[in-house]
Design a protein that fits this description.
Layout lengths: L7 E4 L16 H14 L3 E4 L13 H14 L3 E4 L9 H11 L9 E5 L3 E2 L3 E2 L4 E2 L5 E2 L3 H13 L3 E6 L2 H12 L9 E6 L12 H8 L10 E6 L4 H9 L3 E4 L14 H14 L7 H8 L7
Helix pairs in contact: 1-2, 1-8, 2-3, 3-4
Length: 299
């Protein structure tokens, strides 16, 4: 029996600075340029955050977000997956403003956006000091906010993607599917967290992954991705590949100093090689769109 092809997502820059990895892109030209390099190595999907081109500070500027999509579409058929800017912007309306504006023009309309299905603490733990670095950071996502996000982006032709950090997120996603806020095939992403992120979600292990998968509904048509924050993702990604999932990786999630500080494209190439060694070929963006229930490429 032929195994389903693997979809590779590159999480290209997040909120990380070049202090962590020199390969973190800031400007739209850098982000799009790296995205196209990753596409050539087998990536079908690019997740990105707009950044100030000079300082690397996170930005909510519509023009920066739009320029990335425009540049990517000029040179590839990658699936575009910008963030909502949730860490900076407190209300659902503010988080969505750039997406709604980008969707007005087919040249800048993104394909999909992440919807984080939880409210949680965001405090990192320093095991050496036996203390938290902060103790009051909360990531707020009320059910009302999440409903508004899903309804708004769907109305402008952008697909909401369920981002699942814990078992409650699986159950909430199932409820949103029943309510018609999501549809099958239900594109979702599971996120695991290394030790500094103890308050965020499940640990970055195979057991952490399967604790989430165990609560998926029977006969669910949920094509899922796995990402790992704060540690080497390859052991868990191998488990995802073996379990029929898809994978997400990037230098902003972990700099991979143990691998010689690779570029995003080098990480994608490494994932593609691993997948083929495990009997799974890599999907093209066109194949990924069909598998994820996304519309065809629109230049």
């Amino acid at each position: 029996m032929t195994k389903q092809k693997l979809i590779i997502e590159v999480r290209i820059n997040e909120g990380t600075t070049r202090d962590s990895s020199p390969h973190v892109p800031y400007s739209p030209a850098e982000i799009a340029g790296q995205a196209v390099e990753c596409w050539r190595q087998g990536a079908s999907l690019v997740h990105y955050h707009a950044r100030d081109p000079e300082t690397g500070a996170q930005s909510a500027e519509v023009d920066l977000y739009a320029d990335v999509v425009r540049r990517i579409k000029q040179d590839s058929d990658l699936i575009t997956f910008p963030t909502l800017g949730a860490s900076m912007l407190p209300t659902a309306g503010e988080r969505l403003a750039h997406i709604v504006e980008m969707a007005k023009d087919p040249a800048t309309r993104p394909d999909c956006v992440p919807v984080d299905m939880l409210t949680t603490n965001l405090d990192r733990y320093d095991a050496r000091r036996r203390a938290f670095i902060s103790d009051e950071r909360v990531y707020l996502n009320t059910t009302k906010m999440l409903t508004h996000i899903c309804e708004t982006v769907s109305a402008v032709g952008v697909q909401p993607v369920s981002m699942i950090w814990n078992i409650a997120g699986v159950r909430l996603t199932e409820a949103f599917l029943e309510m018609g806020l999501y549809k099958e095939p239900l594109f979702c992403e599971l996120t695991l967290f290394a030790d500094p992120f103890v308050s965020y979600g499940h640990p970055a292990t195979i057991r952490g992954l399967h604790a989430l998968l165990d609560f998926f509904p029977a006969r669910a048509n949920w094509p899922w991705f796995l990402s790992v924050i704060g540690g080497n993702a390859f052991p868990a990604l191998a488990g995802a590949i073996e379990s029929g999932g898809h994978v997400a990786i990037g230098v902003a999630d972990h700099p991979y100093q143990e691998l010689g500080v690779p570029t995003n494209a080098e990480l994608v190439a490494r994932v593609a090689e691993m997948a083929r060694s495990m009997g799974r070929e890599v999907a093209t963006p066109a194949e990924a769109r069909e598998m994820l229930g996304l519309p065809g490429y629109e230049s």
